[in-house]
């Protein structure tokens, strides 16, 4: 599993255009069938815990007293996708308006180690879902509240 995950993430990071299971299969001259890639992705539910387990040794290796955690929320715009618990309206501070999309909270470990470039390691992530719905009494329109979901 880990070999497939490494291969797939390397493929995503090195691609300049659209990516697909077929594209990965073609890249490795068919040594891995596109169905194998699809089954791997469909059968896996990667979590923040999986990410932490993978990067914990690297964080420990570079941990120092100047290290800090950085949290960042990002909205991945999905303007033409139907709303659901994951894809809903979020306030975008950079655009000063609400946009429809996925709200992703990320955590990074940041450290400046010696004269090297700064090291930033992703250590966690969480999608923010809006699952609590209510009706505004004045407008009679349905609205949703944030609720952190794993």
Write the layout of secondary structure elements.
Blueprint: H1 2-14, H2 21-27, H3 34-43, H4 48-62, E1 68-77, E2 87-92, E3 97-111, E4 119-135, E5 142-148
Antiparallel strand pairs: 1-3, 2-3, 3-4, 4-5
Helix pairs in contact: 2-3
Task: Spell out the key features of this protein.
alpha+beta; 5 strands; 30% helix; single chain
**Termini Cα gap:** 22 Å
**What is the helix/strand order?**
HHHHEEEEE
Integer count of domains: 2
- Helical segment count: 4
Share of residues in strands: 35-45%
Structural class: alpha+beta
Envelope shape: globular
Nearest-integer average pLDDT: 86
Helix share bin: 25-40%
Largest sheet: 5 strands, antiparallel
| Estimated radius of gyration | 20 Å
Ranges with pLDDT <50 over ≥5 residues? none
Beta strands, count: 5
Account of the protein in words:
- With 150 residues, the protein is of the alpha+beta class.
- It has 2 domains: 1-44; 46-150, no CATH class.
- It is built from 4 helices and 5 strands; from the N terminus they run H-H-H-H-E-E-E-E-E.
- It has helices at residues 2-14, 21-27, 34-43, 48-62; strands at 68-77, 87-92, 97-111, 119-135, 142-148.
- The model has no long low-confidence stretch (mean pLDDT 86).
């Amino acid at each position: 599993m880990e070999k497939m995950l490494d291969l797939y993430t390397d493929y995503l990071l090195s691609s300049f255009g659209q990516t697909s299971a077929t594209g990965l299969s073609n890249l490795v001259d068919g040594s891995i069938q596109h169905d194998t890639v699809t089954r791997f992705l469909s059968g896996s539910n990667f979590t923040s815990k999986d990410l932490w387990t993978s990067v914990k040794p690297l964080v420990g290796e570079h941990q120092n007293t100047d290290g800090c955690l950085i949290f960042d929320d990002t909205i991945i715009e999905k303007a033409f996708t139907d709303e659901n618990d994951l894809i809903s309206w979020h306030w975008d501070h950079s655009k000063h308006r609400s946009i429809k999309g996925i709200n992703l909270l990320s955590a990074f470990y940041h450290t400046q180690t010696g004269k090297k470039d700064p090291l930033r390691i992703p250590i966690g992530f969480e999608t923010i879902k809006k699952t609590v719905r209510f009706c505004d009494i004045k407008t009679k329109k349905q609205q949703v509240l944030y609720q952190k979901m794993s």
